[in-house]
């Protein structure tokens, strides 16, 4: 199963699209994962869940601001209502020579860096939120002016981190990414259960040995690491939102050994489960 190609229809009177996208819950990656030749800026107005960009998984919440480059697969999964501002444009949305001028060199560099996916934070999020709202509010030259101001802000920001490695971004393969989507969907649905490597390998129609190599090559993680990330994230939510005991949460999250759970939780969250609950509940 491959990431879905999404065709972006741009109105004839505009060189880029800017809109608010509202969705009900979308829990499966198979419902969300897609790619397109347009660059995309996405700002979350309301929602929380998991953000998939290339081979990386992260939690996202209100205020999340990311930029994805050309044909970089991405998707947001959530169990709740989601509202996001989405801006999409081609690399040459203002003509082939626009980014070849000295004045626009920072934006050209931004577009190149977006091939790895970019996540922005701090004041850049706040300033971008205001500019995005102005883009939505206006039309014509004023709309374009605010977009250029936003691109300048993102290009000059130091409050940014790359999402995928450069090695990964240069080695994108749509067929392999489709297989990764199958793996992530399976884990999301079954992380509380016992892991079945033969079952997963059979779904991809490869041997168990090939499956291990495939996961390591394309995610830079082991299959166990991926499952533990899902389990620990789930445990963190339970620690913050319920009064269940840590032992109950351990088993409810798919672990069958409390010592192993405590060790893995601290590795990923840098806090013990009890310390995490005291800090965030």
Automatic annotation (TrEMBL):
This is AraC-type DNA-binding protein. Gene3D superfamilies: Homeodomain-like (1.10.10.60), Jelly Rolls (2.60.120.10). GO terms for molecular function: DNA-binding transcription factor activity; sequence-specific DNA binding. Keywords: DNA-binding, Transcription, Transcription regulation. Coiled coil: none annotated. Residues 181-279 form the HTH araC/xylS-type domain. Pfam families: HTH_18 (PF12833). The keyword Transcription applies. The keyword Secreted does not apply.
């Amino acid at each position: 199963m491959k990431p879905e190609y999404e065709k972006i229809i741009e109105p004839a009177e505009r060189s880029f699209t800017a809109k608010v996208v509202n969705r009900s819950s979308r829990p499966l990656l198979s419902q969300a994962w897609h790619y397109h030749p347009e660059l995309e800026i996405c700002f979350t107005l309301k929602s929380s869940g998991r953000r998939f960009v290339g081979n990386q998984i992260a939690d996202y919440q209100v205020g999340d601001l990311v930029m994805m480059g050309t044909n970089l697969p991405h998707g947001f999964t959530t169990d709740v209502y989601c509202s996001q501002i989405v801006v999409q444009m081609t690399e040459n949305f203002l003509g082939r020579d626009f980014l070849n001028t000295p004045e626009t060199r920072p934006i050209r560099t931004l577009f190149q860096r977006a091939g790895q996916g970019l996540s922005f934070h701090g004041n850049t999020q706040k300033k971008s939120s205001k500019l995005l709202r102005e883009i939505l509010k206006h039309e014509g030259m004023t709309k374009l002016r605010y977009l250029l101001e936003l691109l300048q802000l993102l290009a000059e920001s130091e409050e940014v981190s790359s999402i995928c490695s450069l090695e990964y971004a240069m080695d994108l393969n749509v067929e392999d990414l489709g297989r990764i989507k199958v793996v992530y969907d399976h884990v999301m649905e079954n992380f509380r259960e016992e892991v079945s490597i033969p079952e997963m390998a059979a779904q991809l129609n490869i041997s168990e040995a090939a499956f291990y190599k495939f996961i390591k090559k394309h995610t830079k993680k082991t299959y166990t690491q991926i499952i533990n990330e899902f389990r620990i994230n789930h445990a963190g939510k339970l620690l913050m939102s319920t009064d269940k005991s840590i032992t109950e949460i351990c088993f409810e999250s798919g672990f069958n050994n409390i010592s192993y759970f405590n060790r893995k939780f601290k590795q990923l969250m840098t806090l013990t489960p009890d310390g995490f609950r005291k800090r965030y509940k």
